[in-house]
Design brief:
CATH class of the largest domain: Alpha Beta
Number of helices: 16
Radius of gyration: 27 Å
Number of domains: 2
Largest sheet: 12 strands, mixed
CATH superfamily of the largest domain: Zn peptidases
Distance between the termini: 30 Å
Length: 554
C-alpha cells in the first residue's frame, strides 16, 4: 500500500463545492454591481500576478543606482552563484522549514543599511567578487553570520589569507558539545565540490591572535575546521566552516553542523530526537550499550528495570530495558541484523524519551503506571553486532527463524520467542536499515487482518504524517541514485516467512511495525545517522500514540 495525499484536483473540487454552496444564498447582483465586481477581480488578479512574479526572483540586483530589497526576510544569502549546490542546500532547507531568505549579489552589499533588515546572513563567495566586508563585520556584532571559510579568511579578515590549509580528508573531531553533536565525536564533513576529500581548514596558531574565537570542530590540534567568532551580544557573531561541506544527504553531517546557529535565528523541529549516539563508530561498542542501559535504569529505578532475556551463540547477554508497570505489552527490538546498528541506538533514545514523557506528560505517566509495559531490546543479535555482520555467529539470518513455517534453531530467536510467550505483545516493533533502493518502508505483520490490520495501517499513516511534518530536507544519494527522505514511501505486508513480525502477528495477533530506512548501504556498510535517529524515533513514538490497539484502556 502506497501512502498518498489528496490530489490537486480533489482539493480544487472541494474548493469549488464550497463556492457553489456559498453562491446559492446570494441575491442576483445588479448590472452596476457586476461592473464593480469585474473591476475588483481585474485589480486582484493583477496584484496576485505581480506578487507571484516578484517572488520568483532569487537574486536581488541594483536598480538605477539603488538596492531594491524585499522586506521581512530572515536570512540574506550573499552569493554570486545561486545554483551551486553548497548554496542551493540552504535554499532547500530554508524553504522546507518555512524560513524566509533572499539572495544578494555581492556587489549590492555596499553599506550596513543594505543588510540591516535581515536577521542573519549566509556568506559564500569566491575570488573576484567584492562586497563591503566592514558592513558584514559590523552586522555580525549583533547578529549571526554563517560564513564560508574562504570568505572569512580572505574577504572579511585578509590577515588570515595565508593561514588556510586544505586537508585530504573530510573527518573532523568536535571539540565541544554543539547541537546534536558531542565533544569527542568523530564526524564527517563531506565536501560538495568535485574533490570530495578536500576540506578547507585554518591554522590554530593564526586564530590564536583573536581573543573572541572559540573552536567547535578540528581536524587536529593544528587545524580548525569549524569555529565561532563572538559578537558583542548573545546569539551573534560569525560561525565559520567550509560551506562546501553542507551536503544535502543529511548523512553524518551537512546542514546538521549549522542547525544550532540557524535555530538561534528561527527554531525548527528537525533534529529534535537525534543525539550523539547517532554519530561515529566509537559508539559501536556492545559494552558501552550495556553500560548505557544500566545508567538509564539506575537513574530511573522507579519506572525502569533491566532484563536479560537470553544469551547468544557466543554466550553474550541479550539485555533489555523495561519501562512501565502495566499489563499490556509493547516489544521493541533493534539490531536483529547485527550490521544494522542505528536501531540499537534508536532503542536507547526511545527509552530516554519514554522516561522523559513519564516525568512530564500526564498521559504517558498514567499509561506507563496503569496500562503499558514497554520492553526494549536494543541489540537482539549481539554476536552479529560485535562482528558487524547481518548474521549471528552461526551464519544464520535471525529474521528468518520464526514460525509458522520455519523451524527456530538459534538461541537469539528463541530468546525473543520466550519473551513473547511470557509477555504477549499487543504491539511489536522491529527496527531495520534498508538499502537506497528500498528506503523508508513500513511493513506490517504477514497475518494481520480485518480491524487489527486497519488499526495498524491507520497508525502507520498517522506516524508518517507526523514525520513528514518535520519537513526533512534534501535527497540521500548513493550509487548515483537519489531518494527523497521527507516521508515514508511505502506501507506493505511482510513478504518473507520466518520474519519476527510474521510470528508476532500469527501467534499473538500483534499490531506489527517493521521499520526500514535507507541508512545502510553496500557502499558504506553500517553507519550511524542523525537523520535516521530522528526518523525512527518520530515514527515509533507516533505509531504507539496513534495505535487504536493501545489507545483505550482495558
Amino acid at each position: 500500500m502506497i501512502i498518498h495525499t489528496k490530489s490537486a484536483s480533489k482539493i480544487f473540487i472541494n474548493i469549488a463545492k464550497i463556492n457553489i454552496i456559498q453562491g446559492e444564498s446570494l441575491k442576483k447582483p445588479s448590472q452596476k454591481s457586476w461592473k464593480a465586481i469585474t473591476l475588483l477581480l481585474v485589480f486582484l488578479t493583477a496584484s496576485l500576478i505581480t506578487t507571484f512574479l516578484a517572488r520568483q526572483h532569487i537574486r536581488v540586483m541594483p536598480a538605477a543606482g539603488t538596492n531594491n530589497y524585499e522586506k521581512d526576510r530572515t536570512f540574506g544569502i550573499v552569493c554570486p552563484a545561486p545554483t551551486i549546490r553548497s548554496v542551493t542546500n540552504f535554499y532547500t532547507f530554508f524553504r522546507n522549514q518555512s524560513i524566509k531568505y533572499q539572495t544578494l549579489w555581492p556587489s549590492t552589499v555596499t553599506t550596513l543599511e543594505c543588510i540591516s533588515h535581515f536577521d542573519a546572513l549566509v556568506v559564500w563567495t569566491k575570488k573576484g567578487y567584492l562586497y563591503n566586508a566592514t558592513a558584514i563585520k559590523e552586522f555580525a556584532k549583533t547578529r549571526i553570520v554563517i560564513s564560508h571559510m574562504w570568505d572569512f579568511c580572505n574577504m572579511l579578515y585578509p590577515s588570515l589569507s595565508n593561514s588556510t590549509q586544505i586537508i585530504a580528508t573530510s573527518t573532523v573531531t568536535y571539540i565541544r558539545d554543539w547541537g546534536n553533536f558531542r565533544k569527542g565525536d568523530l564526524v564527517e564533513m563531506c565536501n560538495e565540490t568535485s574533490n570530495t576529500e578536500a576540506l578547507t581548514t585554518v591554522l590554530t596558531s593564526k586564530l590564536a591572535s583573536f581573543s573572541n574565537i572559540s573552536y567547535i570542530g578540528c581536524y587536529d590540534a593544528n587545524r580548525i575546521a569549524f569555529f565561532h567568532m563572538n559578537g558583542t551580544q548573545q546569539n551573534s557573531g560569525f560561525y565559520v566552516m567550509d560551506l562546501d561541506a553542507t551536503t544535502p544527504e543529511t548523512e553524518w553531517t551537512g546542514m546538521w553542523h549549522l542547525f544550532p546557529a540557524i535555530k538561534m535565528v528561527q527554531d525548527f523541529p528537525t533534529g529534535r530526537y537525534a543525539r550523539w549516539m547517532a554519530n561515529g563508530t566509537q559508539w559501536w561498542d556492545l559494552t558501552w550499550i550495556c553500560n548505557r542501559i544500566m545508567a538509564i535504569v539506575n537513574e530511573n529505578y522507579d519506572i525502569a528495570a533491566k532484563w536479560t532475556i537470553g544469551r547468544s551463540v557466543e554466550n553474550r547477554n541479550i539485555v533489555g530495558i523495561v519501562i512501565g508497570k502495566g499489563n499490556r505489552n509493547v516489544i521493541i527490538d533493534g539490531a536483529i541484523h547485527g550490521n544494522e546498528k542505528t536501531g540499537a541506538f534508536v532503542c536507547l533514545r526511545i527509552a530516554e524519551l519514554l522516561i522523559s514523557y513519564y516525568r512530564s506528560s500526564p498521559w504517558w505517566r498514567f499509561r506507563l503506571l496503569k496500562d503499558l509495559k514497554i520492553i526494549i531490546i536494543p541489540v537482539l543479535n549481539p554476536d552479529g553486532f560485535v562482528a558487524n555482520s547481518r548474521y549471528n555467529f552461526n551464519g544464520i539470518d535471525l529474521n528468518r527463524q520464526f514460525p509458522p513455517n520455519v523451524t527456530t534453531t538459534e538461541p537469539e530467536a528463541w530468546a525473543m520467542r520466550h519473551l513473547m510467550g511470557n509477555y504477549t505483545p499487543t504491539v511489536y516493533v522491529n527496527l531495520h536499515e534498508g538499502y537506497y533502493w528500498y528506503p523508508n518502508w513500513m511493513i506490517y505483520g504477514n497475518y494481520e487482518s480485518d480491524s487489527h490490520l486497519t488499526s495498524t495501517i491507520e497508525a502507520m499513516q498517522r506516524a508518517n504524517d507526523t514525520f513528514a511534518s518535520l519537513k526533512h530536507w534534501g535527497w540521500f544519494t548513493d550509487y548515483n541514485s537519489s531518494v527523497w527522505i521527507g516521508s515514508v514511501q511505502t506501507i506493505a505486508k511482510g513478504g518473507y516467512e520466518g520474519m519476527a513480525v510474521a510470528y508476532a502477528s500469527w501467534q499473538y495477533s500483534a499490531s506489527c511495525l517493521l521499520l526500514e530506512s535507507f541508512v545502510w548501504s553496500s557502499k558504506h556498510n553500517a553507519r550511524q545517522n542523525l537523520w535516521g535517529m530522528d526518523y525512527y524515533c518520530t515514527i515509533v513514538l507516533s505509531f504507539l500514540e496513534n495505535n487504536k490497539r493501545l489507545s483505550q484502556m482495558v
